[in-house]
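Example 3.2
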Amino acid sequence: MNKGKETYQRVLDVAIYFFAKEGIQKTSFAMIAKELGMSKPSLYYYVESKDELIKKVFDYIFEDYTFEDYFHLKDMTKENLIEQLYLGGMDYINEIQEQDILLNLLSEFTLYANRNKEVDETFIEKIKEVQQMFIDGFVQVLQKAIEFGLMEENNIQAKAGVLALMLDNILNYKMLDMKIEEAAIWKQTITGVIK
């Protein structure tokens, strides 16, 4: 990686840190420049405005955020589907939880997107797209469960929504630093849906 790309990556990393810890609204270009050890005008070489920086960080965070990273549909068989669904959910929960800065950042971007949807729908639409991707992914998993005879075909969309909502709610509880039995809750949710 060349020096310009390295510095640009550092700009993103520092912005991520401040957006997650201080909030998007409270983070200033001056704070980011100071942390990077550069002048504010030098920061403008890498990003033209705070709005552009917010968009760049948002795109960076969500570019590789896919359902398939956690739930490997092609590897699911009749014998392992429930276990694969459980493990995928736990991997997702643990990965986000281990990076509490990411959990804070996702929450901050959700709030930011909601506050700014009147001005710019780009952020809220991308978040909806990611949420829908998880619901659609769970629909595919449940369709596979039906093919395998593990469950009956009824209310698939609603059941997929329950799985997606439970993952989000578990993360919300973890963000609040509440002690919950996430593994047991996730397992109970799966067995409640696939029966």
